[in-house]
Amino acid sequence: MIVTFEELQAFLAEQFPQGARYGTLEKLGDGWAEMKLDVDDEHLRPGGTVAGPAMMGLADVALYAALLGKIGLVPLAVTSNLNINFLRKPVAHSPIRARAKMLRIGRASGVGEVFVYSDGLGEPVAHATITYSIPAKR
C-alpha cells in the first residue's frame, strides 16, 4: 500500500468531494477498501428498497479507493466498465457496506470486484466487477 488511509481521505475530500454522497471510507488496505453508506429516503426507490444507482455509486467509489491505495493518488484513473448483479433486496433504512478488492492491476487498467452487504443480512445484496483505465505516467 503506497497511500495511507488519511492521505486517501484528504485526497477524496479535496479532489472528489461529491464522492461523499456515495459513502464513507472506513478501511483501506493493500489493494482493498471498505466503505459504508448510511441509507436514508434519498437512497430509496418505490417499493422501499435501496436504489440500484446508490449501490453502484458505493461500489464504484469503494473500488476507486482500493485502486488508489495501491497505485497512488492518480486523479484521472476512471471507470471504464462497471457490471453489477443485484442479488437480493437490501434492508431499507439500514446501512449498506462495500468490500472492494483489486484482482489485477496493469500499466493501463485495473480490474476488481465489490461485494455490497446490507446490515441485517448475512449474504451480499449485490456483486460488481469494475474496470478502471489508468492514465500513462508522464
From TrEMBL:
<dbReference type="InterPro" id="IPR003736">
    <property type="entry name" value="PAAI_dom"/>
</dbReference>
<feature type="domain" description="Thioesterase">
    <location>
        <begin position="47"/>
        <end position="122"/>
    </location>
</feature>
<dbReference type="InterPro" id="IPR006683">
    <property type="entry name" value="Thioestr_dom"/>
</dbReference>
<dbReference type="Pfam" id="PF03061">
    <property type="entry name" value="4HBT"/>
</dbReference>
<keyword id="KW-0378">Hydrolase</keyword>
<dbReference type="GO" id="GO:0016787">
    <property type="term" value="F:hydrolase activity"/>
</dbReference>
<protein>
    <submittedName>
        <fullName>PaaI family thioesterase</fullName>
        <ecNumber>3.1.2.-</ecNumber>
    </submittedName>
</protein>
<dbReference type="InterPro" id="IPR029069">
    <property type="entry name" value="HotDog_dom_sf"/>
</dbReference>
